[in-house]
């Protein structure tokens, strides 16, 4: 007999607003995973994912994203700490919670010899709660949702990687979901495939589904997400609305000039730090002084200034400011 928690693991609970922390879809407290070999993959994680957000879970390879997702989905037990998904404790409430969650983790498991449509029919048939009488309609709607109607009759092995990812998303969307969890959904895709998945994620989110997606690509998070958490070496560095995270960091002073060498020399004389010379100019840490004076010094020294100003900080600037390291985008 399955043990029931005092908090209740009734499937109906996950579908109502009686979730303990209303408005929060994922909440972890001091969530920690140490693997048997001693590797501390996730270290005291406090994550708060607001309902309705597109939440980017950002970190370099090996920073603990997949391990966290596996704990959230009840696939592995935390060493310590707690995780709640849709207000329910995981992994205890896995069976009650997962029907409300669409997940795409480590690429979809597809049968190459079956068509896209037949793959979805199989998926749907494997769901004991899915009514067989409405199966074809459900599958057609999911295919339409991800733009695969025209290719529905093709064998899945003939699909591009992007189409396979979209088919995996269609499988996750056969039932209405309150939460979508996507582990590196654009990994390995070409730019066109990436654009397709990103616009699909935005569309899904506009219907009110909370989307939690992991990525090691900063610009992807900036383009798609409303909120983000940044991980490094198993620890949470920061989390919050993307606009606020980037605003917390200082931007860069950017001087556009055909004389970058001279510009750099003058700026250095003026005490400006962290100079980076490029073909089109110089960037630097913005100094705490009147910028007009700096511009005047450049012009007085004969530097031809085409552009001068402080660029808005990116999430990358925030990451560098918080960790003191560059963001490793390898992989
Ligand atoms: N089953 C395991 N046994 C031992 N160590 C593991 C295991 N799974 C992951 N790790 C280690 O835990 C750390 C975090 O890995 P994890 O896969 O969670 O990172 P990630 O941010 O998802 O990176 P990636 O994008 O490369 O998957 C890594 O150092 C990894 O080697």
Automatic annotation (TrEMBL):
It comes from the Bacteria. Keywords: ATP-binding, Nucleotide-binding, Transport. InterPro entries: AAA+_ATPase, ABC_transporter-like_ATP-bd, ABC_transporter-like_CS, P-loop_NTPase. GO terms for molecular function: ATP binding; ATP hydrolysis activity. The keyword Nucleotide-binding applies. Belongs to the ABC transporter superfamily. PANTHER family: ABC TRANSPORTER, ATP-BINDING PROTEIN. This is ABC transporter ATP-binding protein. It comes from Streptomyces olivochromogenes.
């Amino acid at each position: 007999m399955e043990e029931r928690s005092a908090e209740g693991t009734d499937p109906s609970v996950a579908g109502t607003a009686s979730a303990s922390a209303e408005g929060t879809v994922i909440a972890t407290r001091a969530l920690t995973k140490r693997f048997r070999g001693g590797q501390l993959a996730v270290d005291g994680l406090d994550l708060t994912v607001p309902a309705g957000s597109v939440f980017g879970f950002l970190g370099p390879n090996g920073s603990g994203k997949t391990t966290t997702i596996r704990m959230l989905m009840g696939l592995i037990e935390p060493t310590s700490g707690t995780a709640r998904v849709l207000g329910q404790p995981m992994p205890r409430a896995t069976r009650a919670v997962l029907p409300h969650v669409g997940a795409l983790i480590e690429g979809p498991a597809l049968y190459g010899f079956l068509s896209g449509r037949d793959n979805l029919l199989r998926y749907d048939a494997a769901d004991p709660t899915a009514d067989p009488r409405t199966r074809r309609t459900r599958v057609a709607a999911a295919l339409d949702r991800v733009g695969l109607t025209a290719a529905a009759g093709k064998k899945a092995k003939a699909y591009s990687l992007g189409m396979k990812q979209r088919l995996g998303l269609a499988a996750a969307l056969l039932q209405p979901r309150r939460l979508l969890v996507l582990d590196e959904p654009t990994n390995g895709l070409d730019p066109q495939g990436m654009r397709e998945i990103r616009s699909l994620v935005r569309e899904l989110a506009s219907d009110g589904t909370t989307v939690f997606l992991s990525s090691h690509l900063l610009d992807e998070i900036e383009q798609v997400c409303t909120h983000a958490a940044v991980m490094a070496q198993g620890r949470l560095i920061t989390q919050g609305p993307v606009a606020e995270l980037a605003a917390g960091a200082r931007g860069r002073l950017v001087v556009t000039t055909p004389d970058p060498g001279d510009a750099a020399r003058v700026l250095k004389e003026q005490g400006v730090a962290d100079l980076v010379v490029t073909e089109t100019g110089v960037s630097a840490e913005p100094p705490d002084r009147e910028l007009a004076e700096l511009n005047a010094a450049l012009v007085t020294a004969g530097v031809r200034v085409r552009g001068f100003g402080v660029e808005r900080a990116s999430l990358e600037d925030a990451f560098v400011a918080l960790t003191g390291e560059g963001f490793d985008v390898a992989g």
